[in-house]
Design a protein that fits this description.
The structure holds 2 protein chains of 2 kinds. Chain A is an alpha/beta fold. Chain A is 18% helix and 30% strand. Chain A contains 6 helices and 15 strands. Chain A is globular, with a radius of gyration of 18 Å. Helices cover 33% and strands 24% of the residues of chain B. In chain B, strand 10 and strand 11 form a beta hairpin. The chains are: A alpha/beta, B alpha+beta. Chains A and B meet through strand 1 of A and strand 6, strand 7, helix 4, strand 12 and strand 13 of B.
Chain lengths: 277, 365
């Protein structure tokens, strides 16, 4: 079989596991054969294979500047993710990819960047934040709006604080259920827009979260004057191959795996408003 | 070197034998379980001589017809994708030791098939799967290896079934390209006009010493195939179809057809272009060895669109809409061609007799 078979995983070893929340873990992985890690861009995903269990598309949540490791943040919601989060240091997993269209970090140069994340949707956006903060002067204002179910479900809490202290950067978080000790904001992430003043003509937005959240965020951004073409969303569908063969991730005329997962809102707006596409 | 030859039945036997001698596994039409299917053949005697099919929406009957030659049948439920894009294929094996594992790629070489009796619509279907599995961003090595090793003997159609509509899809009934050799039955289906399409085909023709075809044989063959086209009663109007269907996502017809559709997936299995697959993992009881298999899948199953939280397409309406819209509209945008070749299998083999041509027409209204 040809060595460039896109269906063959490459073995990576788990180097470090961080418990982010009760059900979400970050795995830092390194190639077993010591060859250079796969190159990736912010927003791309890998197909992660757990031997004898299965394979899933998982976005890369690590820094592109980390030339040794590929990092993934996984929420345990099913058979394969349960196994992924139970991997310990020294265990092996299979990696294919990376696949997909990345976030528009080059196009965003010189613009204000609004990053809107819901739940685990912050993971595929973290590489964007690393990228911008490393080149802070090349970008305009940075705003991160992040919604989680509860304070305990917030990812990357230490980093949220660090990011909020970067120059010209704001981080606003909200939760669905606060509990008695929460003094922050409660409500869906769209309600956070009232606290930020956008400069719509120079703003590009990158949005990742549940589909319904992305729909309402995109509408909100549009209401505030951001052009549809300047709103990017990251879509999710069932995926078996990542390379356009299995057909599962079709979304109208697009394959999420190769035409996405990051789409311009103007391309998919009508599909997002329809049911069961 | 002439391109057109005259073959009789012994010459056809000689062709099958010659291909087998060259190391090909010859695959062709055979009668099994009351239908013409494709499987290994060793001589003309294996072909469905004396059989004719009667087809309608939701209906297939194979009837005795003493006048029918070996290639006078109209295509049955099998298609060649079974041989090129197999229903089950092992992607790799893995061996596990102390938390680590090793990937063991497939090492067996691809089978070499000589497909005998490929119809024009089926050549078009192979060209479409080539586009999907070889001509896009990634290449499927399983398909590629089988495809490279292939020898194709096309057979032009002399009869059409009531479910055929290749003429309107501009894919048949005459094979124009994509074959090594093409045959047209003439003289009551017992003689053949042979045509070479590639150097490999010409080499076989030269080796077997076939005589050049007389001009009247060529005109008879052309007329027979034209008559098969004229006999077609179904059609799809391609002009503007992709745009019309893309705009018809909320058309009430989807509700109507969903009441008849059982979401059984027969159409996707019988379709020669449907390419969707899923994967399955197997392992030994101790987990020391695992395998990953790819299997045909169907967009009509609910699990097809499953993501955490539930399936995207829960209603049968949305699944039928996905299938038909993909076939006739999205495919055009994805791969520059419709995903339908007009073979009519989805019409014949739908247990509810749902007719793609009728649905396409209704959705434009």
């Amino acid at each position: 079989m040809s060595p460039d078979d896109p269906m063959l995983p490459v073995a990576y070893r788990v180097e470090k596991v961080t418990k982010e929340t009760r059900d979400t873990f970050t795995l830092v992985t390194r190639r077993v054969d010591r060859a250079p890690r796969h190159a990736f861009e912010p927003g791309q995903f890998s197909m992660l294979y757990v031997c004898a269990v299965g394979e899933l598309p998982i976005s890369i949540s690590g820094d592109t500047a980390d030339k040794q490791n590929l990092t993934y943040t996984v929420r345990s919601v099913g058979q394969v993710t349960n196994q992924l989060v139970s991997l310990g240091v020294g265990d092996t997993l299979g990696v294919r990819g990376p696949f997909g269209v990345p976030w528009p970090v080059e196009e965003a140069r010189g613009k204000d960047v609004v990053v809107v994340a819901g739940g685990i949707g912050l993971a595929p956006l973290r590489p964007v934040l690393y990228h911008i903060l490393r080149r802070r002067e090349e970008y305009g204002r940075l705003v991160l709006l992040y919604g989680a179910r509860s304070p305990q479900d917030q990812l990357f809490r230490k980093e949220l604080t660090q990011w909020s202290q970067a120059p010209e950067s704001r981080v606003l978080t909200t939760v669905d259920y606060g509990g008695v000790n929460w003094h922050g904001h409660v409500g869906v992430v769209t309600t956070m827009f009232r606290y930020v003043r956008l400069r719509p003509e120079r703003t590009i937005a990158m949005v990742c979260g549940p589909e319904i959240m992305m729909r309402f965020v995109a509408r909100e951004l549009e209401t505030r004057g951001v052009e549809r073409s300047q709103i990017r969303v990251s879509m999710e569908r069932n995926m078996k191959c990542g390379c356009g063969f299995c057909g599962h991730c079709q979304y109208g005329p697009d394959f999420i795996c190769k035409d996405g997962p990051v789409f311009s809102y103007d391309r998919i707006q009508s599909r997002m408003e329809a049911y069961e596409i | 070197m002439p391109r057109f030859f005259r073959l009789d039945e012994p010459a056809l036997d000689g062709l099958i034998e010659a291909l087998r001698q060259q190391g090909y596994t010859a695959v062709g039409p055979r009668v099994r379980d009351g239908a013409v299917i494709y499987d290994e053949i060793s001589s003309v005697a294996d072909l469905p001589q004396g059989w004719a099919s009667e087809q309608e929406a939701g209906k297939y009957r194979l009837n005795r017809d003493p006048s029918a030659g070996p290639f006078d049948y109209v295509i049955g439920p099998s298609s060649w994708k079974q041989w090129l894009h197999p229903p089950e294929a092992r992607l790799f094996a893995a061996e596990r030791e102390n938390g680590a594992f090793r990937i063991l790629p497939n090492t067996t070489s691809a089978p070499r098939y000589a497909l005998v009796g490929v119809r024009a619509c089926e050549l078009a279907a192979i060209a479409i799967q080539d586009r999907v599995l070889l001509g896009d961003r990634y290449t499927d090595p399983i398909y590629q290896a089988r495809r490279k090793a292939l020898f194709v003997v096309a057979v032009n159609c002399t009869r059409s079934a009531a479910t055929c509509f290749c003429a309107s899809m501009q894919t048949g009934p005459r094979a124009v390209e994509g074959f090594d050799l093409a045959l047209t039955p003439v003289g009551n289906g017992r003689q053949y006009l042979g045509e070479t399409g590639t150097d490999a085909g010409a080499a076989v023709a030269g080796e077997l010493g076939w005589p050049e075809a007389p001009p009247e044989m060529m005109s008879e063959a052309a007329e027979t195939v034209r008559a098969a086209a004229r006999a077609q009663t179904r059609n799809v109007a391609l002009e503007g179809l992709a745009e019309a269907l893309t705009a018809a996502a909320e058309h009430p017809r989807w509700e109507t057809v969903a009441k008849r559709c059982m979401a059984c997936g027969n159409c996707t299995l019988a379709c020669p272009t449907c390419f969707c697959t899923t994967v399955e993992d197997t392992s030994t009881v101790d987990g020391a060895r695992a395998e990953r298999w790819r299997k045909w899948d169907s967009c009509f199953t609910q699990s097809f669109s499953y993501i955490h939280g539930g399936s995207v397409r829960t209603s049968v309406k949305s699944r039928y809409r996905q299938w038909l819209t993909h076939k006739l509209a999205y495919w055009q945008q994805q791969f520059g061609t419709p995903g339908c070749v007009g073979c009519g299998r989805c019409i014949t083999w739908c247990p509810a007799g749902i007719d793609l041509t009728e649905e396409a027409r209704a959705l434009r209204a």
